[in-house]
Write a structure and sequence with these properties.
By secondary structure, this protein is of the alpha/beta class. It is built from twelve helices and eight strands. Strands 1-2-4-3-5-6-7-8 form an eight-stranded mixed beta sheet, with helices on both faces.
Length: about 280
């Protein structure tokens, strides 16, 4: 089994923590996590793919062990990760995107289409129809950034909500390790973390505004795309996965009977889908 190494890189003055595995000469795969997680969410997936890929999984700025971003925006997150890929020599790579990792990774793809060899989207949305009613409290904050609407979003940061995100839609919750949500709650409890996350909730509207740009990139460049989706996700609905086929007719879409954090229950199945996808 290939060892996972734990490193940090300097991205224009910001420390980015990352996990790395696989041979340096193998095809490159960038793994981008979501809210409220870190690269820890890939702990089961990395060993299953490290014989095939050179894998790098960074903690997004302000998440896990990476420095907070200078600006609490998705543009800034993408800028830091973009520079990070250049620092570590990821010149051409496939990208695995989940949740917040999707608008981050899709920004990179639209900016540097020549660098992207393939996209794997695991509950990583780029279409309006993929957004569930679970976004309504956040939409209210987009429309009226009042303190009342901001404070209402603090419910998303409660420890029990993190556990719910991991377990909702999972037929057998005893297979969900407490390690992931416990670590996430530890990071969410750090000083300043709550305000960063509330700011990012507010800025998520910038991602929705970029959906047409992302879709134009898909239509124009038609990157090989695999969607592996927890079909019971309360935030990103299956129509969001199917919509990729509208712009990339050859996209492969696979659904799994699980929730938002599909890797917690289906890492082996998703790894097999990725290996089959790349073998084509």
């Amino acid at each position: 089994m290939t060892a996972i190494k734990y490193r940090t890189a300097d991205s224009d003055g910001s420390k980015v923590f990352y996990r790395e595995a696989g041979a340096a000469g193998a095809p490159k795969l960038l793994l981008l996590h979501g809210f409220p997680s870190s690269s820890h969410m890939f702990r089961d997936l990395i060993p299953l793919l490290a014989d095939r890929f050179h894998i790098v999984a960074p903690d997004l700025p302000g998440f896990g062990k990476s420095d907070p971003p200078r600006a609490h925006t998705f543009d800034r997150l993408a800028e830091t990760i973009d520079r990070f890929t250049e620092v570590i020599g990821f010149d051409r790579y496939a990208v695995y995107v989940f949740d917040y990792g999707a608008p981050t990774g899709f920004r990179l793809a639209a900016k540097h289409p020549d660098r992207i060899t393939a996209i794997i989207s695991q509950n990583g949305n780029a279409y309006e129809e993929g957004l569930s009613e679970g976004w309504n409290p956040i939409r209210a904050y987009w429309q009226d950034a009042s303190q009342t609407n901001r404070d209402a979003l603090r419910a998303f940061l409660k420890p029990e909500t993190t556990v719910w995100q991991y377990t909702h839609g999972v037929p057998d919750t005893t297979v969900v390790s407490p390690d992931g949500y416990s670590l996430d709650n530890f990071y969410l409890n750090r000083p300043g973390a709550a305000e960063l996350q509330l700011d990012l909730f507010g800025d998520y509207k910038s991602n929705v505004a970029l959906y047409p740009t992302f879709q134009k990139y898909f239509r124009t460049h038609k990157p090989p795309l695999l969607a592996v989706w927890g079909k019971n996700d309360p935030f990103f609905l299956p129509p969001g996965a199917e919509a990729f086929k509208r712009d990339i007719p050859n996209a492969v879409v696979r659904f799994f009977d699980t929730g938002h954090f599909a890797l917690e229950t289906h890492a082996a199945e998703i790894a097999a889908a990725i290996r089959d996808f790349r073998a084509r």
